[in-house]
Amino acid sequence: MKLSSIFKYTFRIVFLLVIFIIICIICFFAYMFTGKTEKSENMDFGVTFSQLFAEQMELNWKEAYTAMLDELNVKKIRLIAYWQKIELVEGEYVFDDLDWQINEAGKRDAQVILAVGRKLPRWPECHVPEWARELDESIQQEKLISLLTQIVNHYQDNQTIKIWQVENEPFLIGFGECPKLDKEFLNKEISLVRELDSEKRPILMTASGELSLWTQPALIGDIFGTTLYRIVWSDVLEKHVEYPIPAVFYYKRANLVKWLTEIEKAVIIELQAEPWSHLMIYENTLEEQFKTMDFERFKEIIDYAKYTGFDEAYLWGVEWWYWIKENHDIDTYWLEAQKLWND
User: Fold this and answer.
1) Exposed/middle/buried for 19, CB within 10 Å: 0-12, 13-18, 19+?
2) How confident is the model at residue 4 (pLDDT cuts 50, 70, 90)?
3) 115 bridge partner residues
4) From residue 213, how far is each of 124, 243, 298 by CA, in Å?
5) 238 - beta bridge partners?
6) How far apart are CA 207 and CA 117, in angstroms?
7) Structure pTM?
């Protein structure tokens, strides 16, 4: 066979293979983005509460937390063990504020997911006390292992805590002020929590719903949690972007991940219910805040979540609902959220 004939034959094979791959990709996306699920009328809602963010919003965080428990009647809460709150001074571990949050939840028969680690909810994503910021990464990791040991041992017998979350969206690249992901260290953190916890509570691993793969966290956790955002700020485009993603996409993606990883439970761990812009909420005018989260969008997002096929979702923004109610006499968000737990 002539060299030119071999080249033509090889080219045709490669061309057909590329066409086949393109067709497969088109079919895959057509499948993922079409269809619909039935609306869930019994979706189980919870919230994430951040003491740090409540303080940044200049709220009395204990009053906000108590109102969330007693007025909204929330029964599922994700709380956050911020390193700088627990170990403000190196080697001195203070759990007073977190103890109070967990104990108040327990008094009302609420269940808690406790997020631990360095990369945790709220900006700047990685939370480190002042004394540890200039440490070499290897030394900082050693200190973090000591912190995790203290936290798990401290809450070993606390029955209000039902789930550990280890790190937050650890595989999400390019968002937040964080060091490069060390997968070996992440696995070490997970193994440590498993070994220390005599209650053998499940470990939740999380990922961005739109910007990262789900298989990696699902493979190393017992429960998988995705974020779900509808409108975000893009630094690249310098404007807001609304994701053109149908609700069924999350349902099909979750089923695919369950099939690939054999993980059994998936939840929406962060359902957008507050504004998002290039500034912090409290740095924006109300007009700017309402561009991404007016009352109609707030209701639409909650309704959208009910079509995702998930049976559990944790709303993101309870501090803002309380802030806008207390500081601007706008209680529509608070009252609408109240319906989720009181109807």
Assistant:
1) exposed
2) low
3) 80, 165
4) 22, 17, 27
5) none
6) 15
7) 0.94
Angle, CA 150 vertex, CA 314 and CA 174 arms, to 5° = 50
**Is cis: bond before 246, omega within 30 of 0?**
no
Q: Judge contact between 209 and 228, C-beta under 8 A.
A: yes
- 234 within 8 A of 240, measured Cβ to Cβ: yes
The predicted structure's pLDDT at residue 16: 80
Q: What percent of the chain has pLDDT over 90?
A: 85
152 Cβ contact partners less than 8 Å away, ≥ 6 residues apart: 116, 164, 192, 193, 196, 197
Residue 3 is predicted with a pLDDT of 53
Sign, CA torsion 208/214/219/224: positive
- Condensed to tens digits (0 to 9), the pLDDT of residues 133-157 reads 999 999 999 999 999 999 999 999 9
Give the lowest-confidence range in 10-19, 27-36, 124-133, 318-327. Answer: 10-19
Task: Give the percent of the chain with pLDDT over 70.
Answer: 97
Please give the structure tokens belonging to residue 218.
Answer: 């699902």
Structure tokens at 285: 């005018």
The per-residue pLDDT for 7 is 62
Nearest to 125 by CA among 184, 188, 183, 83: 83
Query: What's phi and psi for 115, nearest 5 deg?
Result: -90, 125
Per-residue pLDDT, 235: 86
Question: Average pLDDT of the chain?
Answer: 94
